[in-house]
Amino acid sequence: MRPPDWLAYITAVLERDGHEVRLHDFPAREWERDQFIRLIRKQRPQAVILDSTTPSIDSDLNYASLVKQEVGAIVAMVGPHVTALPSETLLHSKGDVDYIIRGEPEYTARELFAALEQKSSPHSIRGLSYLNQGQPVNNQARPLIENLDELPYPAWHHLDLKKYFDGIKLYPFIDIIGGRGCPYQCSFCLWPQVMHGNQYRLRSPQNIVSEIKYDLRLWPWIRKGEFFFEDDTFTVNRDRALEICHEILKLKKKITWSVNARADHGDDELFQLMKKAGCRMLLIGYESGNDTVLKMVGKKLSPYTALQKAKRAQAAGLKIHGCFVLGLPGETEKSMTETIEYALELPLDTVQFSAAVPFPGTSYFEYCQKNGLVQAKKWTDWLANGEQSGVVDYPGLPSAYITATVDQALKQFYFRPRYMTRFLLSTRSLRDLYRKTRGALNFLDYLMKKMKS
Question: Which domains are seen in the chain, by residue range?
Answer without folding.
Answer: 5-138 (3.40.50.280), 165-420 (3.20.20.70)
